[in-house]
Amino acid sequence: MALEFTDSNLKEYVASNKLVVVDFWAEWCGPCRMITPIIDELAKEYEGKVAIGKMNVDDNIETPETFGIRNIPTILFFKGGELVDKHVGMIQKSTLEEKINELI
User: Fold this and answer.
1) pLDDT of res. 1
2) Is 1 one of the catalytic residues?
3) Average confidence (pLDDT) over 58-86
4) What separation in angstroms does the CA of 7 have from each of 3, 37, 44, 55?
5) Helix and strand totals (H; E) in the chain
6) For a designed S-S bond to 24, which of 43, 58, 74, 89 qualifies (C-beta 3.0 to 4.6 A apart)?
7) Can you tell me the distance from the alpha carbon of 35 to that of 91, in angstroms, rounded to the nearest whole number?
8) Active site residue: 7, 9, 18, 29, which one?
9) DSSP secondary-structure letter at 104?
10) How confident is the model at residue 20 (pLDDT cuts 50, 70, 90)?
């Protein structure tokens, strides 16, 4: 199952040297609900190697504001404490896997 990132715990994950993949979403967002099963599958497949999870933009306003999240779904990729990639909008599982494998 995907991790649940919050304003208070994301910094701890990002500070690790592990790749961190954050899906910014909201309950009312149709495309976000379509990506949820993909995020859950990838979280299982990469468990222990990559921290993959979701952040609800309605419950957490500080982090989306910090990173200029204006549209959802938006997926941010962090490695070594730095933002290294970003994807806005729908994405296929295979494309997301390619991005993750490039960054591991």
Assistant:
1) 84
2) no
3) 96
4) 13, 23, 23, 8
5) 4, 5
6) 74
7) 7
8) 29
9) -
10) very high
Torsion angle defined by CA atoms of residues 62, 65, 66 and 68, in that order, rounded to the nearest 10 degrees = 160
Residue linked to tokens 């952040």: 55
Domains of the chain: 3-96 (3.40.30.10)
Position 91: which residue type? I
Catalytic residue among 19, 20, 32, 39: 32
Task: Check if 99 is active-site.
Answer: no
Nearest-angstrom CA–CA distance, 47 and 16 = 15
**Distance (Å, rounded) from C-alpha 37 to C-alpha 70?**
22
Quickly tell me which residue has 């979701």 as its tokens.
54
72-102: b (≥16 Cβ within 10 Å) or e:
bbbbbbbbeeeeeeebeeebeeeebeebbee
